[in-house]
Write a structure and sequence with these properties.
The structure holds three protein chains of three kinds. By secondary structure, chain B is an alpha+beta fold. Chain B has helices spanning 24-30, 99-105, 117-121, 128-136, 140-146, 155-159, 166-181, 186-196, 201-208, 212-221; strands at residues 6-11, 14-19, 50-54, 62-65, 75-79. Chain B folds into three domains: 6-79, Ubiquitin-like (UB roll) (Roll); 92-181, Orthogonal Bundle (Fumarate Reductase Iron-sulfur Protein, Chain B, domain 2), CATH 1.10.1060; 186-220, no CATH class. In chain B, a hairpin with a 2-residue loop joins strand 1 and strand 2. The longest helix of chain C has 20 residues, at 162-181. The chains are: A alpha/beta, B alpha+beta, C alpha/beta. At the B-C interface, helix 1, helix 7, helix 8, helix 9 and helix 10 of B face helix 5, helix 6, helix 7, helix 8 and helix 14 of C. The structure holds flavin-adenine dinucleotide, iron/sulfur cluster (2 copies) and FE2/S2 (inorganic) cluster (FES). The site of one iron/sulfur cluster has 15 residues of chain B, from helix 6 and helix 7.
């Protein structure tokens, strides 16, 4: 039975590579997902004002619609969507005021029953890294991979409850090992990339991004993986800009974890949406 | 039937006794109104007659088209014959059917909060929020189809906290789809060429010269496509 | 909701359905049709008409309701109007914001003219917006303009003016392509091929459509395009009288702001009259499918200016108007319902006529079925017969009604009737003005400077228009009017404005003792009654 899937707006526009590779890799592992028939933007940013209920309505409706499907879960892969949906669900579950306001407005009975899952969790819990290990080829053997989590997947810890240690998650590294590649640990893996500041304070973001990239490279990483469209964009696109000014700058490909997984699972490369990447990963992946 | 039973309705808070079950439009005329605004096609197609109402003891704001909605006891109603709207000007031929086009002309679509008020008020029963959501992620085709039955009454616009003008987004998507997504009809282009080259002129002239009797005969004998 | 009695009668229809599905009712020939029309068509009923007593068509018998409008005084008192103060000075004035007017405005503007459009309601509140069924054009391989020509002539009783029909059928594909370029969403197959079906009186499947919002799709697309091109539009400002100059050419109009009750004087080098039809005159006391502003305004204004009328004595009754529920009596049930296979069935469950004959014939047959044969159903508004709409889903697959006829489905559903499950009750309703102001193939009248396009014009359709040829006609002649007017104004100098034609008309009415009524009526008066 298919698990309800919420792609989110970005995956339909800028980050189609994340959408394509997520569907393709999950399918290759026998996990069927079905896009919710109708869905809106999740709201993108979780409202910081506690009483901004309007900003939580869209996410609440998405969770409620998912709860009407049989599976009981909702998969979403974009870190922003995952963050907003999970936090709204948490608020509905744990804060009566929020629950009452939202369910009354939406005229629905809902107490946070939908279980929001990230594909990383599906890979870990449903597929299992041991099983995965048996299904992968050896194309990634010897490649050093830095896992970049950013902020959205795991913060704030109390609400997100992502992985065991939210300031030091390891699920992506475990995935990397299961894929047959070599995981490198680096201290910037949960450092903020600068996020939307790229529009306003571009220089600051360049500084942050450079820190992250250099940190990964210093540990010998040849590729960085992430699950966040905005992190991917910042880490990837800014390298082009840096290289324009500094010809000695050494670029490093930044992929969605699902794209790398696709390579390990022999998913045809056309289904992985690699063409939108700025720093071309093909030389590395084709060895 | 209508004439038998009378009900009280409140047109902009003023009470009138009208036959039960007639449309609001006819009820208002029965009450003595002669429309200048708020009435166009009288058949549910033009969107001139958007109406909102409430019933006693019910907090809900309801809506309908005055030409389709039936008068019921206790309705408090008002028409919304005009609501200011933002409309972008464009040259369709130059546009591309993608997200950036929508965001250039109607950037406000990204302000949608998902409150669903637009869907709730739509007298056509369209999933307005969902067609805006489709537009917001550049799914022009979906927005075009979902908004197809929109009669541009503007009721959704009057309710939107994000100040979106849904129907203008809808028509932009439909025109983009009709012009740039669905392929052009090849048989049509071919026929236009033939006509311009004068291919049928002779045959038409010939028919134009025929008497009524001659034509009648050809007409009765013409073959019919099944 | 149907009454218990009606629900019982529906069972009869259901019982005969399977058998009927396999039978095609025989068509009739021209001679049989003429006999049927003379026996039952409202145009031929005793006492329906009287001769008009003045003007270019003096002595011609026309429906009383039209004659009443024609035998009326000018809206303005010519002596009172100050024609020195010009409010708008333009190249081309388009009167009427329906499909014909909007096409004309777009083309006149494209031709370089400075255009003003004045319309009575909002731009697009018009009969065009209501057209559901479709638009004809011979653009398929097995079809051609000459074949289309023959269908048009046959539909019109072979009385249509040949040069107009030739223009109609030759421009048809060009107009469809024009709309396609504007992004009008015709129902198409994925490869772009137009989905086309039959309409009454067509020998080829050439009815293009956009679900059952064909007119709405055309109207809103044209309106959007006109807005993009910056065409100036005055809404709620109907024309009430034409102006001429001292050489006798039409040179503008007087507009009336219905909200502020102020008059505007418009001077123009050419005027395109596109005010549409006249259903709201309720000819034969019939309910109508037409929009609120269909009151023959353009007819009387043009007539006073000296233009001749043609075929105004031929009124089209659409065979399938709603006969139940009462709330929407007279509203249209599009011909597409029959185009998709629904049959006409009497109270005994029998099919009684070929469903896709020309409209005048089908209407007459329904009237005969109820009046002469007594096999109609009784409804609060009079009588009706069944239209077996559930056949559509049976033939084309479940969901077809909702997919192809959303507007129809929605209208009946509003009143608790699911037309994909139960048949509906229909009766002929006043639908279309077959005739109007006589034009030539350039959309010109005999009066210099006056162009007519759309339902206001006469001659294209003879005595009976076929479905899908009116949406076509408004584009063909709207475009031609716009293009020709834009060309013409290059050599026009407007002289001193006057209203002498209106003054003379008033004097003649005085002589005839007919000085009580005033026209155009602009909007019907339904106050204190249940009507329309
Ligand atoms: C319900 C319905 C269904 C139809 N279905 C079909 C179909 O399927 N296929 C088909 O081919 N045809 C169909 N027709 C016929 C067709 O739609 C009309 O004949 C055609 O659209 C008329 O276009 P028009 O521009 O001439 O007039 P309209 O579209 O009526 O426009 C006339 C405009 O002029 C305005 N006006 C009137 N008086 C004045 C004035 N004094 N000053 C300024 N403005 C004025 C009116 O308010 C209106 O806006 C249908 C008609 C109706 C009513
Ligand atoms: S979408 Fe808006 S404008 Fe269109 S019909 Fe619905 S409420 Fe009216
Ligand atoms: S009313 Fe406006 S904000 Fe609310 S769902 Fe509709 S488009 Fe979005
Ligand atoms: S008057 Fe046109 S929709 Fe009601």
């Amino acid at each position: 039975m298919a698990i309800p899937y919420f792609p989110g707006c970005t995956l339909k526009t800028k980050a189609t590579g994340l959408d394509d590779s997520t569907r393709a890799t999950l399918a290759a592992l026998g996990l069927e997902v079905a896009e919710l028939p109708e869905w809106t933007c999740c709201g993108t940013v979780y409202p910081l004002a506690q009483d901004n209920y309007m900003g939580k309505v869209a996410a609440a409706r998405i969770l409620i619609n998912a709860s009407k499907e049989d599976d009981g879960r909702l998969v979403t892969v974009c870190s922003f969507c995952y963050n907003v949906l999970k936090r709204v669900n948490h608020a509905i579950k744990n804060d009566e005021e929020t629950r009452t306001k939202l369910t009354q407005f939406l005229e629905e009975e809902y107490a946070g029953e939908t279980k929001l899952v990230h594909p990383l969790e599906l890979l870990r819990d449903d597929v299992g890294f041991d099983t995965l290990q048996k299904k992968v080829n050896n194309k990634l053997k010897g490649i050093k991979v830095a896992s970049y989590y950013g902020c959205m997947l795991s913060r704030p810890a109390a609400e997100m409850q992502f992985d065991e240690e939210s300031e030091n998650p390891t699920v992506m590294e475990d995935l990397v090992s299961a894929m047959g590649a070599e995981a490198v640990d680096f201290k910037y893996k949960t450092t903020c990339c600068g996020s939307y500041q790229v529009m306003k304070t571009y220089d600051l973001v360049v500084k942050k991004v450079r820190e992250i990239l250099e940190g990964a490279k210093a540990k010998g990483a040849q590729v960085i993986i992430t699950s966040c469209p905005l992190c991917q964009f910042n880490l990837d696109w800014i390298q082009e800009k840096i290289a324009e000014e500094d010809s000695s700058f050494d670029k490093i490909p930044v992929l969605y974890f699902t794209q790398l997984l696709g390579v390990a699972l022999d998913v045809p490369v056309e289904k992985l949406g690699l063409e939108k990447n700025y720093v071309d990963p093909k030389p590395l992946l084709q060895g | 039937m209508p004439e038998e039973k009378m009900v009280n309705i409140y047109i902009m808070n003023k009470q009138y006794e009208v036959p039960a079950g007639v449309t609001i439009m006819k009820a208002m005329e029965f009450a003595g109104y002669q429309f200048v605004r708020g009435c166009g096609c009288r058949g549910g197609f033009c969107g001139a007659c958007g109406t909102v109402y409430r019933k006693p003891g019910d907090f809900r704001l309801r809506s309908g088209l005055a030409c389709q909605l039936q008068a019921e006891e206790g309705m408090y109603l008002a028409q919304i014959p005009f609501y200011p709207a933002n409309r972008s000007t464009y040259d369709l031929q130059e546009l591309t059917p993608e997200l950036s086009t929508i965001l250039t002309h109607y950037p406000e679509v990204t302000r949608c909060l998902g409150c669903n008020q637009c869907t709730k008020i739509c007298p056509q029963g369209l999933d307005v929020m969902d067609y805006i959501a489709a537009a917001q992620r550049g799914d022009v085709e979906k927005a075009a189809h979902m908004s197809f039955d929109c009669i541009m009454c503007g009721l959704c616009v009057s309710r939107c906290p994000a100040e979106i003008v849904h129907y203008n987004v809808g028509i932009l998507c439909r025109r983009l789809y009709g012009r740039h997504i669905i392929p052009k009809a090849e048989h049509l282009a071919k026929r236009v060429e033939e006509i311009k080259s004068g291919k049928f002129d002779g045959e038409l002239n010939d028919l134009m010269g025929k008497s009524q009797e001659e034509l009648t005969k050809i007409y009765d004998d013409r073959d019919m496509e099944q | 909701m149907y009454t218990a009695e009606m629900l019982e009668l529906i069972k009869v229809v259901e019982q005969t359905r399977e058998k009927r599905m396999s039978e095609t009712f025989p068509r009739i020939n021209v001679e049989e049709k003429n006999k049927l029309l003379r026996g039952f068509h409202p145009d031929y009923m005793d006492g329906a008409m009287r001769p008009v007593q003045l003007g270019p068509n003096k002595g011609d018998a026309l429906p009383h309701e039209h004659v009443d409008i024609l035998e009326s005084r000018s809206w303005v008192d010519p002596a009172d109007v100050d024609l020195e103060k010009i409010d708008f000075d333009v190249d081309v004035l388009v009167i009427g914001g329906g499909g014909a007017g909007t096409s004309a405005a777009i083309m006149a503007a494209e031709g370089g003219a400075d255009v003003l459009m004045a319309t009575k309601l909002r731009h697009g509140d018009a009969n065009t917006m209501m057209a559901e069924g479709g638009i004809q054009a011979a653009d398929k391989e097995n079809d051609s303009p000459p074949i289309h020509y023959l269908d048009v002539m046959g539909g019109g009783g072979f009385l249509n003016i040949p040069e107009l029909v030739s223009a109609l059928v030759s421009d048809a594909p060009i107009c469809i392509e024009w709309l396609e370029n504007f992004g009008a969403m015709f129902s198409k197959f994925p490869d772009g091929t137009m989905n086309t079906i039959h309409g009454g009186g067509t020998s080829r499947r050439r009815m293009h459509f956009a679900h059952d919002y064909t007119g709405a799709e055309i109207m809103r697309t044209l309106r959007d395009e006109a807005r993009n091109r910056g065409v100036k539009v005055l809404e709620f400002a109907p024309a009430v009288e034409l102006l001429k100059d001292d050489q006798g050419q039409v040179a503008g109009a007087i507009l009336y702001n219905m909200e502020t009750e102020k008059y505007y004087i418009v001077r123009a080098k050419a005027v395109i009259m596109a005010t549409g039809g006249s259903g709201r005159l309720h000819i034969n006391e019939s309910p109508t499918t037409n929009h609120y502003g269909a009151t023959a305004d353009g007819i009387i204004m043009s007539y006073r200016a000296g233009a001749k009328l043609a075929f105004l004595n031929a009124t089209q009754f659409h065979p399938t108007g709603v006969a139940f529920p009462e709330q929407v009596v007279g509203q249209l049930v599009t011909e597409k319902v029959r185009g998709l296979g629904a049959q006409l069935v009497n109270i005994e469950g029998e099919q009684f006529f070929y469903p896709l004959e020309t409209r005048d014939a089908v209407s007459s047959a329904i009237i005969r079925e109820c009046r002469e044969r007594g096999k109609g159903l009784t409804v609060p508004s009079g009588s009706g017969v069944w239209l077996d709409s559930p056949m559509i889903d049976i033939i084309h697959g479940k969901g077809t009604v909702q997919e192809e006829l959303p507007a129809m489905f929605r209208m009946f559903d509003n009143f608790g009737i699911k037309m994909d499950e139960t048949p509906i009750i229909i009766y002929p309703t006043l639908h279309y003005q077959n005739g109007g102001v006589l034009i030539n193939d350039k959309a010109e009248t005999e009066i210099e400077g006056l162009y007519i396009a759309g339902e206001c014009a006469g001659g294209v359709h003879g005595r009976n228009r076929l479905m899908g040829n009116s949406l076509l006609d408004i584009l063909v002649f709207g475009r031609r009017a716009g293009m020709n007017a834009a060309e013409k104004i290059k050599n026009v100098k407007v002289g001193k404005l006057n209203l002498e034609h209106a003054a003379e008309y008033n004097q003649e009415l005085d002589k005839l003792g007919l000085n009580e009524r005033v026209s155009p009526i602009l909007i019907p008066d339904y106050r204190y009654k249940i009507s329309g």
